[in-house]
Amino acid sequence: MQLYSFFNSSTSYRVRIALALKGLDYDYKGINIRVGEQRADDYRALNPSQGVPLLVEDDGTALSQSMAIIDYLDETHPEPRLLPAEPRARARVLELANAIACDMHPVNNLRILGYLKNRLEVSEEQKNDWYRHWIAEGFGAVEALLERYGHGPYCFGEAPTLADCCLVPQVANAERMGCDLSAYPRVMAVYQHCQRQPAFQQAAPSRQPDFTA
Amino acid sequence: MQLYSFFNSSTSYRVRIALALKGLDYDYKGINIRVGEQRADDYRALNPSQGVPLLVEDDGTALSQSMAIIDYLDETHPEPRLLPAEPRARARVLELANAIACDMHPVNNLRILGYLKNRLEVSEEQKNDWYRHWIAEGFGAVEALLERYGHGPYCFGEAPTLADCCLVPQVANAERMGCDLSAYPRVMAVYQHCQRQPAFQQAAPSRQPDFTA
């Protein structure tokens, strides 16, 4: 199994956490999305969506989209399960995971910030305001979901789920951008708990072969 | 069962399609997100994420996030299945659905276009360029996925899936914004096929109680 990944990509980081939690080995293939390697012809042949992450199985089957990859890993390597079998528990995990995957990450990723800066020529301050605005909206919702439905030390109890796979990279991203996250104590408690676990540590950007400071 | 929905919300439209395909009855509750009804206190009490759609079951259980809602409906009302049981087929459906749900819809929805216009004060032309840019990036990827893995008349064969639930509202949205979609013949063939099906027709914005021209 191969994972095409960029060390600092939140969506790649999600999948790396899932792979580490399941104890699955893979070859790491770094794709530097900062310099556009995802648009190179040979990578596009592999992934017409031109993004990371991409999971390639030994028979050549390639799968993009982090949420699809993690669901697939959960179907094919169900131990430990990252999506509960019980429908309501499963729904809560997917609700929180998608609050991050659909409402937060897409509007603050590299391509969006790049468009704001290069095409719309917004100021650095405007770009940072944009980033912080969606972080506040998003983590406000996630904090409220955790308050209502969560129970620690992970988002939903004693075992990690897809929700934690999404939460950790999003917090790491916001911290890197200098956001004040003190208004989200439940989010931060989950984050800090996860950061102490070996699988989450192993998946961290700084531990990847393509990491650069 | 109640569905809080806005007629023109693509994520609400996805869930309406799923409910119609499964033949499930529900009370329609219109939330006008154009005037901010999602931020009213009584709605926030129900949905801390302050968005639509929201599914509320007869026992009061409330679930947000369209992708979580459809998965939940598929778990609890599996006929017809919108996510295949076979892992690779399921993965392809989720890959295409998330290419729309994560890469397209979030960056072009009402709140983003509103921020561009009101906070960043971009011109109408710049706003339209933004919209068209992400539609072209997104449908370029979806077209490539359909070319590689799809087989009609739906995205993946003879039966509708979550991928179709996501594709139809996104095409409708792009058409409403005046995008030229002729470069995506596979996307459009699926769209046109779906538009002829009663369940998709029943879920259309113009057929909802809160529709306004």
UniProtKB/TrEMBL annotation, chains A, B:
InterPro entries referenced in this protein's UniProt entry, alphabetically: Glutathione-S-Trfase_C-like, Glutathione-S-Trfase_C_sf, Glutathione_S-Trfase, Glutathione_S-Trfase_N, GST_Zeta, GST_Zeta_C, GST_Zeta_N, Thioredoxin-like_sf
Biological processes annotated in GO: glutathione metabolic process; L-phenylalanine catabolic process
Domain of life: Bacteria
Domain (GST N-terminal): residue spans on this chain: 1-81
MF annotations from Gene Ontology: glutathione transferase activity; maleylacetoacetate isomerase activity
Keywords: Isomerase
Coiled-coil features, chain-numbered ranges: none
Residue span(s) of domain GST C-terminal: 86-213
Any one of the GO CC terms: cytoplasm
Family: Belongs to the GST superfamily. Zeta family.
This protein's name: Maleylacetoacetate isomerase
